[in-house]
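Action item from last meeting closed. Structure (363 res):
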């Protein structure tokens, strides 16, 4: 019944490699090499230049002990801001109420108004700034027991961390005013921990997320034999889900001089004298729909496409005889030019002789 249904629907069932007795293809089919329909789970991605990372800061708040600097905003509120009469304990005129947002000026002071003057606070923590303001109001202005509260309406960090970060050639990413961290060769989990540890001195309980926006460091190479006229190399980005057929589709398949002899060369460690190659059955992965040699590719894999032997032979012969054809062409051209000059001169002389001896013409 199964055979009948297969034939009825117009499908044909082929053997794994019809009319083929290639030991390499059969060995590849029996191996456990990851391939289409049987792909392997890749290890954790390790970042390298020039990948692009996306860093998002979930918590970017200045630590409590962070020092104030010019441009910071301070919310200062104070009570009991009435001066004491020098003659006794009676209260004289009422001063302006201190309850507003004040900026730390470029000279490092905060201006509380004409009644209270300025107080230097740059380089102070919030607690130290509060003590400085209370001391100023008591000892300089003459207030009895002022109650002062100092806070920051904007507690965000010095700079926005979130955004795209390019992994530079030295393996680091820049975090702006927070410096730089080395991330090359590390996983995303490791990078997140490194960034959070690095930010602890400038950010209160930093929390970040890290992901890869641009996978630019991993490549696959396709080398096409030009049939004796050189070899071209195409580099395509590695996505983690590529097969041989996926990669070859990026270069529009095989060229007019290519043969069907294709293999994948996998990078071998330094010092290894044996190449790690896997033959590709072009007929099988295309017309046959066989996945045995449609391997899952890994970073650095090389796909080599050998040229057709007749095209290679033709190009080789052409390169060998081309210099001789050029030499013979110049020789024949020179010889023909000489003969043309000689015979042309003779033909011209005969015509002149006939004209000069035109005795046959009537006088």
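Sequence:
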């Amino acid at each position: 019944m199964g055979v009948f249904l297969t034939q009825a629907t117009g499908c044909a069932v082929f053997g794994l490699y019809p009319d083929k007795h290639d030991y390499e293809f059969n060995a590849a089919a029996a191996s456990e090499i990851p391939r289409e329909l049987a792909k392997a789970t890749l290890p954790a991605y390790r970042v390298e230049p020039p990948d692009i990372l996306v860093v998002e800061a979930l918590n970017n708040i200045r630590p409590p002990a962070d020092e104030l600097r010019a441009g910071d905003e301070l919310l200062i509120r104070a009570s009991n801001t009435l001066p004491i009469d020098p003659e006794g304990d009676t209260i004289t005129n009422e001063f302006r109420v201190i309850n507003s947002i004040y900026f730390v000026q470029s000279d490092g002071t905060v201006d509380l108004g004409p009644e209270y003057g300025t107080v230097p606070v740059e380089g102070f923590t919030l607690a130290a700034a509060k003590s400085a303001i209370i001391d100023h109001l008591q000892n300089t202005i003459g207030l009895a027991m002022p109650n002062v509260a100092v806070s920051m309406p904007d507690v965000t960090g010095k700079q926005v961390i979130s955004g795209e970060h390019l992994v530079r050639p030295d393996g680091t990413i820049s975090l702006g005013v927070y410096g730089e961290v080395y991330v090359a060769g590390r996983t995303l989990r490791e990078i997140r921990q490194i960034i959070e540890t690095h930010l602890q001195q400038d950010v209160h309980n930093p929390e970040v997320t890290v992901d890869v926006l641009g996978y630019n460091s991993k490549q696959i190479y396709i080398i096409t034999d030009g049939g004796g006229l050189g070899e071209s190399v195409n580099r395509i980005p590695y996505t983690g889900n590529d097969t041989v057929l996926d990669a070859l589709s990026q270069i529009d398949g095989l060229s007019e001089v290519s043969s069907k002899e294709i293999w994948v060369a996998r990078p071998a460690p330094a010092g290894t004298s044996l190449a790690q190659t896997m033959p590709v059955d072009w007929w099988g992965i295309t017309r046959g729909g066989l996945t045995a040699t449609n391997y899952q590719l890994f970073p650095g894999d090389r796909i080599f496409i050998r040229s057709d032997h007749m095209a290679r032979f033709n190009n080789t012969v052409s390169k060998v005889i081309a210099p001789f054809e050029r030499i013979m062409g110049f020789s024949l051209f020179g010889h023909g030019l000489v003969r043309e000059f000689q015979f042309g001169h003779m033909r011209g002389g005969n015509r002149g002789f006939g004209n000069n001896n035109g005795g046959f013409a009537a006088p």
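Note appended to the action item: The radius of gyration is 43 Å.
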